[in-house]
Amino acid sequence: MKLVVGLSGGSGIIYGVRFLEVLRELGVESHLIFTAAAKKTLVLETDYTVSQVESLATRVYGVGDIAAPPSSGSFKTDGMVVIPCSMKTLAGIASGYSDNLLLRAADVTLKERRPLILVLRETPLNIIHIQNMLRAAQAGAVIAPAMPAFYHRPKTIEDLLNHQVGKVLDLLGVEHNLFERWKGAKQ
């Protein structure tokens, strides 16, 4: 499997880091596009360095490299995940405003009818955010907000991260054991 992974500047960059870690553990080829805002958020929200995160990916592209392989539909992938997806990135995707490689790769993913999963991390939402989510979903994107579940009784932040990452992997059909699945209420 080969995935494009976009890290944008929304809070919750740790979701993207954990996603890359799991892809590496599972042997999934990852093509990373890391925005400047995401790099700044990484430093503000975690103890990871940019080089540590980049080392998790199979290949890394500069966000300004509009001629990189993910900019073309002839670059075959199994989909793209933007994790986290900022409201700015969502707006660009929803309007087809492809002025950088992350936005272009998302546009290509949609036009080629490949899975595009947007892990939004924002609250509260205004009407513009909601309209952009609707437009992106109508174009074929899956909106998968970072909303932790608690039925599996998480004990750590990693439990919460694994649940969200696992939900994204489920959407892509990737087998994993990141969280305990719901088996119904205990009697």
Automatic annotation (TrEMBL):
EC number(s) on file:
2.5.1.129
Entry's Pfam families? Answer: Flavoprotein (PF02441)
Sequence positions that bind dimethylallyl phosphate: Y151, K167
Q: Care to name a GO molecular-function term for this sequence?
A: flavin prenyltransferase activity
Q: Which UniProt keywords apply?
A: Flavoprotein, FMN, Prenyltransferase, Transferase
Q: Where does FMN bind?
A: G9, G10, S11, T35, S86, M87, K88, T89, R121
**Xref: SUPFAM superfamilies:** Homo-oligomeric flavin-containing Cys decarboxylases, HFCD
Coiled-coil annotated spans = none
What catalytic activity does the UniProt entry give for this protein?
Answer: dimethylallyl phosphate + FMNH2 = prenylated FMNH2 + phosphate
Q: Check the record and name the InterPro entries matching this protein.
A: Flavin_trans-like, Flavoprotein, UbiX-like
Looking at the record, the residues that make up the Flavoprotein domain are 1-171
Known role: Flavin prenyltransferase that catalyzes the synthesis of the prenylated FMN cofactor (prenyl-FMN) for 4-hydroxy-3-polyprenylbenzoic acid decarboxylase UbiD. The prenyltransferase is metal-independent and links a dimethylallyl moiety from dimethylallyl monophosphate (DMAP) to the flavin N5 and C6 atoms of FMN.
Family membership noted in the UniProt record: Belongs to the UbiX/PAD1 family.
NCBIfam families xrefs: PRK06029.1 (NF004685), ubiX_pad (TIGR00421)
Q: What is this protein called in UniProt?
A: Flavin prenyltransferase UbiX
Q: Which organism is it from?
A: Candidatus Marsarchaeota G2 archaeon ECH_B_SAG-M15
